[in-house]
Amino acid sequence: MTNPVPVAISPARALATKVPEITASFWVIKVLSTGMGETFSDFLVSQLPPELAVGGAGVALIVALVAQFRSRRYVAWIYWTAVVMVSIFGTMVADIVDFKLGVPLPVTTIAFLVLLGAVFGLWYACEKTLSVHSITTRRREAFYWATVMITFALGTAAGDLTAGKMHLGYLPSTVLFAVVIAIPAIAHRWAGLGAIPAFWASYVVTRPLGASATDWLAADRSDGLRLGTGWVSLAVTIPMVALIAVVALRPDPQQVD
Fold it and tell me: With left for phi above 0 and alpha for psi between -120 and 50, is residue 129 left, alpha or beta?
């Protein structure tokens, strides 16, 4: 999917852009981060008292977001650390809502979808654009990260809905979301779908795609390979960190000297 930037950004404004260029590496890292967040969240909860695991992840998320907001430009390590922590903490919160509080998965999925629509509406009403490469002010950055967190929650609920409530299982859910994530890109290229809605539609699906794949590898149940959440988390983290390192070393065309 090409860079969803319909608005021109002046050199002075481009210097402040706080998100990465949308390339193939972006999508690969994003899917890996969602998968890692799913299994590592489960690993932490299984190894630590749940209160400590959730509280620690919450504090780490706050620290990561503070670092991201304090940065004056896009820094790969800072940005992706924040994304990973959103994934880990978001998984924990979604699991609490779904499995501890007993809120039905269809209800949480619809609720998060409505909330996402409300945030998009408010963001557009205030800023007149939903482009991720217009993130050049604190308010736009706040809208962006609020949207990111809601998409993680929505994707988690949707993935649990298909794999569990709809009884598809992890592997069929992975295949389903792999097909679904391609639809916006195809629609953008050949059916005239705008770059911005195509981007956000695909972004939401990265969560259930990555989570379903790693759950299939790690889950200790009949439709899982039972490799363990710790080992799968490590196996996903290694290529993710390697890709982030490559991206961090590569000159960012969005930044202006």
Answer: beta
What is the full DSSP assignment across the chain? ------S---HHHHTT--S---SHHHHHHHHHHHHHHHHHHHHHHHHS-HHHHHHHHHHHHHHHHHHHHH-SS--HHHHHHHHHHHHHHHHHHHHIIIIIS---HHHHHHHHHHHHHHHHHHHHHHHS---GGG--SHHHHHHHHHHHHHHHHHHHHHHHIIIIIT---HHHHHHHHHHHHHHHHHHHHHS---HHHHHHHHHHHHHHHHHHHHHHHH--STTS----HHHHHHHHHHHHHHHHHHHHHS--TTS--
| pLDDT (0 to 100) of residue 253 | 52
Which portions of the chain are predicted below pLDDT 50? 2-15, 255-257
Would you state the pLDDT for residue 136?
A: 84
- Distance CA(177)–CA(190), nearest Å, equals 20
- CA-nearest of 40, 94, 25, 5 to 236 is 40
Alpha-carbon distance of 51 to 105, in angstroms, equals 23
pLDDT of residue 14: 40
* pLDDT at residue number 201: 93
